[in-house]
Amino acid sequence: MIGCDSQPASSNVNSMTGNSANSGKKSSSAPVFGYNVVKTYKHDSKAFTQGLVFHDGFLYESTGNYGDSTLRKVDLESGNILEKKDLSNNFFAEGMTILNGKIYQITWREKTGFVYDAATLEPLKEFKYQGEGWGLTTDGKQLIMSDGTHILRFLDPETFTVTRTVPVMKENGQPLFLLNELEYVKGEIWANIWHSEETETGTTQGRLPNIGKANYIARINPESGKVIGWIDLANISPDDTGDSENTLNGIAYDAEKDRIFVTGKKWKKLFEITLQPK
């Protein structure tokens, strides 16, 4: 169990890694960090969170489910929805990210993505891709997309062609499956793992076994695909465990103020956290 009453550590992830992407030393296990809750905010308990971004002082959120999928701009302090775009009922929205004044949002099985004006949320165009869409983030140059497997795809934001792929591997050399919502944080890709809380003894819905650890975020080297750290968010939101689909899913990073935000599907709260070495 995480000791949330301990003194908060700096959220500066570069200084905390201990097994950095540039390190030449090999380690049998990547470091694990706990968390300290700095502040709790309201979160729409009807929002099936699939993508989360902090941009210019506001939260932007992509919510899923057929008939309920949206793109929304949210006030952080109050949790109020300031603007919202509803997707057609035949689309199940997934991850989203913001790059160069544009919002990119993908869908689960429809092989369709949408581009919006970040200032107005007005649709600009659609794009197509192969396979399923799960998480989406950006390194400031390219889009980075997960599809439920252990493969991350890098896409050109103008042509949407795949420029390269990276397999994500655990410390033991085995692939890390079910990569879901993504966030790019100080040169690392952070990934929620779908239903990690149900994979301790085997498979999830017929898929391959995962990491065997509940509510962990994986920290990934975008060049090699190696897992270079874990964040253990066990028990962060005990009031949001009634529905098995209400899993941890949503990471947003405020680069200006060095703040980390996390939430989950239909969670009533969003949490600002700092990391603590365990």
Helical proportion, percent range: under 10%
Specify the biggest β-sheet: 8 strands, mixed
How many distinct beta strands?
20
What is the top-level CATH class? Mainly Beta
Termini gap: 10 Å
CATH architecture: 6 Propeller
Order the strands across the largest sheet as they lie in space. 14-15-16-17-1-20-19-18
CATH level-four homologous superfamily name:
TolB, C-terminal domain
Number of helices: 1
**SSE succession:** HEEEEEEEEEEEEEEEEEEEE
Percent strand equals 35-45%
CATH topology: Neuraminidase
The average pLDDT value, as a whole number, equals 86
Would you tell me the structural class of the helices and strands? mainly beta
**Global outline:** globular
What is the number of independent domains?
Answer: 1
- Rounded to the nearest angstrom, the radius of gyration is 17 Å
Contiguous runs where pLDDT drops below 50 for at least 5 residues: 1-27, 199-212
Question: How is this structure best summarized?
Answer:
The chain has one helix spanning 13-16, and strands spanning 32-42, 49-55, 58-63, 70-74, 81-86, 93-99, 102-107, 112-117, 123-128, 136-138, 143-146, 151-155, 162-167, 179-185, 188-193, 216-220, 227-232, 248-254, 259-264, 269-277. With 278 residues, it is an all-beta fold.
Question: How would you explain this protein's 3D organization?
Answer:
With 278 residues, the protein is mainly beta. It has one domain (28-277): Neuraminidase, CATH 2.120.10.30. It contains 1 helix and 20 strands. The protein has one helix at residues 13-16; strands at 32-42, 49-55, 58-63, 70-74, 81-86, 93-99, 102-107, 112-117, 123-128, 136-138, 143-146, 151-155, 162-167, 179-185, 188-193, 216-220, 227-232, 248-254, 259-264, 269-277. The strands form 4 sheets. The protein has an 8-stranded mixed beta sheet, with no helix packed on it. It has a 4-stranded antiparallel beta sheet with strand order 2-3-4-5, with no helix packed on it. Strand 16 and strand 17 form a beta hairpin. The longest helix has 4 residues, at 13-16. It starts with 12 loop residues before the first helix and ends with a strand. Mean pLDDT is 86; it is low at 1-27 and 199-212.
